[in-house]
Amino acid sequence: MKNLLLVFVGGGFGSVLRYLIGKYLNSTETGIPYGTFAANILGSFLIGIILGLALKNNTLTENHTLLLATGFCGGFTTFSTFAYENHAFLKTGDFTSFAIYTIASFAIGFLAVFAGMHLVK
Q1: Beta-carbon-side half-sphere exposure of residue 26 (alpha carbons within 13 Å)
Q2: Distance from C-alpha of 66 to C-alpha of 11, rounded to nearest angstrom
Q3: Which of 51, 39, 37 shows the shortest CA–CA distance to 121?
Q4: What's the whole-model pTM score?
C-alpha cells in the first residue's frame, strides 16, 4: 500500500507540473507543442539522473525510486499526448512538423537519459 501511495503522490506532482509547462509553453498560434516536448526531454533527463543515482552505490532507496522515477517522471512525461499531437500533425498534413517533432523527441530524449546517467557517474 505504501508503494502505491508513493507512486500516486509523485505522479500527482509530475502531472500538475506537466500541465503548467504545457499551459505556458504549448503554442496555440503555431500548434507546436513546445511544452510537451520540454516535459518529455526534461523528464528523460531526470529519470536518467534518478536511476543513475539508484544504481550508483544504492544512493536512492526503492521508495525514492518509486516516488521520483515511477511516480513523478511517469506523471510528468507523456507518451499519449505526444502520440495525439503527432496525430494532429498528420491529420492536417503537416508532415514536416511531424517528422521534426518525432525524430527530435526520440533522439534528444534518449540523449537526455544518457546525459543524466552520465552526470551522476
Answers
A1: 17
A2: 10
A3: 51
A4: 0.91
CA distance 65 to 47: 9
State how far the Cα of 91 lies from the Cα of 7, in Å rounded to an integer: 35
d(CA 12, CA 26): 20
For residue 68, what is its C-alpha cell?
A: 521520483
Number of H helices, E strands in the chain: 6, 0
pLDDT in tens, 64-106: 999 999 999 999 999 999 999 999 999 999 999 999 999 999 9
Place of cell 533522439: 107
